[in-house]
Every structure is written in C-alpha cells, then in structure tokens.
Write a structure and sequence with these properties.
Length: 328
C-alpha cells in the first residue's frame, strides 16, 4: 500500500528573500535570520525556514510511513505580490519545487504556483512551463487573487487549460481580503482561513465554473472547510428559494461530489463526518506539514472506522490516480 501526503509545504529561502522587495499588501521583514510576513494590518506570521527543510521533511515522512508528499508553496503565493515581481516569484518557486522533486524523485511530487494577477497570456506561459516542461502535477489555487475572487473571468483560461490537460487545481486558504472583521483574537487563522477557502469553493460552484468545466479537477482542503456542514442550507436556498442559481443547472451538491477533499483536520470528528458525506473515491490524506505533525493525522486516519480497502484509497490510491503518480 502506498501512502501519499497531499498537503505538504515548502518555503524556498530565495523566495523569502524576494518577498522583502514587495511593497503592496504583503510586507516582509527579516529579523534574526527569520522572516515576519505581514498582511496589511490584518495578520502576521513568523516564518521559520528550518521547519521547511526538505531533509527534515523526509525524516518526518520516514518516521510516520509516508511514501510520497505532494509539495506546495505556503502562503503567501506569488498571486498576492506586486505585479512587477509576480512572474519572477512564480518562476523561482516552481524551479525550486522542481529541483527538490528531481533530487528526491521517489519521495516528492510538486504543485505549481502562478502569477494569476497578470494577464492570461503571462500566467498561461508559466503554466505551460511548469506543467509541460517541469512536469509539476497540479496548480495551487489560493482562495483569492489579491482580493479578486477565483470565479473571475480573468481565470477562465486557466480552467479551460487545466480541464483540457487533466491537471488538478488545489485550493489553498490565504488571509481573507475581508479579514478586518475578524482580525482580533487571532480569529483569522482560527476561522478566517477556513471560511475564505469555503467561499472560494462555493464561488466555483455558484459562479458556474464547474458547470462550464464539468471535468475540471478540484481539490478542496481541510475536510471542505464549512461546506459539508452547510450544504443542506446551501441547497435549501438554491433549490427551494431559487437563490443563487443564475449560473448553475443542478443542485450545488451534485457539483461538489466531484470535488476531492483532503482530510486535514485536528480532530477525527470532521473526518468521520466527511466519510459519511462525500464519495470515498474523492477523499485524500494530508497533513499540512510542517504546520502540524504528520503523526497526528496519520494516527487519526488509521483509527477511522472504515474497511481496509477504503483506508488504502484515502491514504494513497486516490491521490496516486489524481496526480498520475507511477509506481507503488
């Protein structure tokens, strides 16, 4: 049985240094060898690069029986940066992820990041380089593009190309543009990140992206945020009250059942709920490493009350098919 961690992060030191040049919403200061990332006046995070070291990640994978990790750049992605450095940042990130995967090809596969605030011609050029030349296995789709929603028409060329190529788009939360209302008491990392990527997912449905692109592969993280719990209310609004149906023909849940969910949650209760809620061939194991211990998530999944075949699917087989990983 192969075990694949679908949510595992890296942060290239040259990218951290590049971020110090940004002058917009994202500001980064270097202090005593670490970097403090500031999102306007809403939220700051201290970046410890040592925790993202690939060798440390491999040691943590070995100690928990993880065969392969799908690597992605942690926030902020290049889509949140000033336009004059966005493409440079995306290329640096994609090259670094490729380099890590190339030198540890049996342990890592990678996701691309794109400068989606630029023109479609510019971001699709980097998409083609990252996917077709570097052979990265998917694209990170952060929950908004410098405040622009992910169902915006500017992103339609990405959805067309990714659907055509069979390339997964992996949603990842970032600090919400509306974070002013919850910036107190650390509510942004507690609640805001989960709500923001849930809003992003719902916009893909209600905005008609999944209607227009029925074969688009989407991964929605963290047990689907709040969507699985609110889907009955969402469908009561669309199907009974006929609200929000301008761009869809089917109930929202029918689109959502084709989306992949990872089981990254610090409690087994949401995992168990999602197991009952979602198709078993659309569930993925993930850890959010290095933010959280891989061991915690591995133990919770191992204890789930499911048959061995389903557990094998969750731990690796579904991801192997989705990301087109050979071997195992």
């Amino acid at each position: 049985m192969i075990t694949i961690d679908c949510q595992s992060h890296v942060f290239p030191p040259p990218y951290a240094e590049l971020l110090t040049r940004n002058r917009g919403w994202i500001r980064v200061e270097k202090t005593l060898g670490n970097y403090r990332i500031q999102y306007g006046d809403l939220q700051s995070f201290l970046l410890n690069l040592e925790s993202y070291d690939p060798q440390k990640k491999i040691r943590d994978m070995d100690s928990t029986g993880i065969d392969i990790s799908i690597l992605s750049i942690n926030i902020p992605g290049p889509e949140a940066l000033d336009q004059d450095i966005a493409l440079e940042a995306a290329k640096l990130c994609n090259d670094t992820v490729w380099d890590i995967c190339f030198h540890h090809r049996e342990r890592f596969q990678g996701l691309a990041v794109l400068p989606l605030q630029l023109s479609p011609a510019e971001y699709l050029s980097e998409y083609r380089r990252a996917i077709h030349s570097l052979h990265l296995r998917g694209v990170v789709l952060y929950s908004h593009i410098a405040g622009k929603p992910i169902d915006h028409p500017d992103l339609e060329p990405l959805y067309t190309q990714a659907e055509q190529d069979g390339i997964p788009l992996v949603i990842h939360p970032t600090v919400p543009a509306w974070g002013e209302v919850i910036k107190d008491y650390s509510m942004i990392p507690m609640l805001g990140l989960m709500v923001d990527h849930s809003i992003a997912m719902l916009r893909l449905i209600l905005g008609g992206v999944l209607e227009r692109h029925p074969n688009l592969l989407i991964v929605h993280p963290h047990c689907g945020g709040v969507i699985p719990y609110l889907m009955p209310r969402i469908e009561e609004q669309t199907e009974v009250k006929k609200r929000g149906r301008d761009h869809i023909r089917k109930p929202p849940g029918e689109y959502y059942r084709k989306v992949y969910l990872d089981l990254v949650s610090p409690s087994p209760l949401p995992m168990e709920y999602v197991l009952r809620f979602h198709p078993e061939n659309r569930l993925l194991f993930g850890s959010d490493h290095p933010w959280v211990s891989i061991q915690l998530f591995k133990e919770m999944v191992e204890r789930l009350p499911v048959r061995g075949e389903l557990k094998s699917r969750i731990l690796g087989e579904n991801a192997k098919a989705l990301f087109r990983i050979d071997g195992g």
